[in-house]
Amino acid sequence: MTPLFEQVTIPTGHSWGLLWRELDTIPFIWHYHPQFELTLTVNARGQRYIGDHLGDFEPGDLVLLGPNLPHTWSASERIDGAQPMLAVVVWFALEWVEQLAACFPELQSLRQLAARAGPALHFSAETSARSADKLLQLHALPVPQRLPLLLDVLLDLAGDTGARPLASMAQALLPDGQHKRMAIVFDFMHAHFREEIALETLAQRAALSLGAFHRCFKRHAHCTPGEYLARLRIGRACQQLIESDLAIAVIAQEAGYRNLAHFNRQFRAARQVTPRAFRRQYRHASRVAP
């Protein structure tokens, strides 16, 4: 199941995009685009598919997706049958974030938000509720008044310590400057995750001692190098399970696993289902989509 490329068009005279979409059902359309996407889902209950993440969502679900991350929502259950489902979608480019942060030092936290959103962020219930109230006002506002309200939402999201990443197959975007050293390490790991990578090799690339590297890595990735490498491998396997018909043994080997039984154990521990069941869930969703 190859994701479709979506051409997101930002209207002339606008620096970001807004979509107010009322639907009877939310169809399964597996797609991606180069913009960040903030999606609020109202009056709907169903499933969200983001990269290798598959999870249920409830009304008021709020997610920020990074660029080029395959995703879709799917729902046929309305909470209030007399009202349509509603998706409020905001699109913006990384350059938009960088330009805002460069012009206004007060908006530096937006850079950190963008860096964390690579694998998609799901926000805490409290922050989502506050943000939903504001996002639902955007559509009715005159265009010039929308931007301050959107920035208010994004700054609130940037401060949400309860936000959690959803997918593992996207590389989080890293801002320049102090993170450049770790960007070199992440690039190397993403290029060589199928191989055995020694911790010493990564530390050398970061020009740090082993101890300093381990602390620095954990601060940026919120996990150990070994855990991050495992996420990359499982993420690659999930991508192949979704998008190809390759045998599971072949997928395991291409993801860097030399032992199929070990792969199956690691996959089940990470996704709570077997590789075969994971593939079946996605294919069933695509078949029953309205």
Q: Which stretches of 5+ consecutive residues score pLDDT under 50?
A: 170-178
What is the CATH class of the largest domain?
Mainly Beta
How many individual helices? 11
Q: Would you tell me which CATH topology of the largest domain applies? A: Jelly Rolls
Largest sheet: 6 strands, antiparallel
Overall body shape = globular
- Residues in helices, as a percent range: 40-55%
Portion of residues in beta strands equals 15-25%
CATH superfamily descriptor of the largest domain: Jelly Rolls
> Based on helices, strands and strand pairing, what is the structural class?
alpha+beta
Total DSSP E strands: 11
* Corresponding CATH architecture of the largest domain: Sandwich
Largest sheet, spatial ordering of strands:
2-9-4-7-10-11
Question: Residue-averaged pLDDT, rounded?
Answer: 87
The SSE order reads EEEEEEEEEHHEHHEHHHHHHH
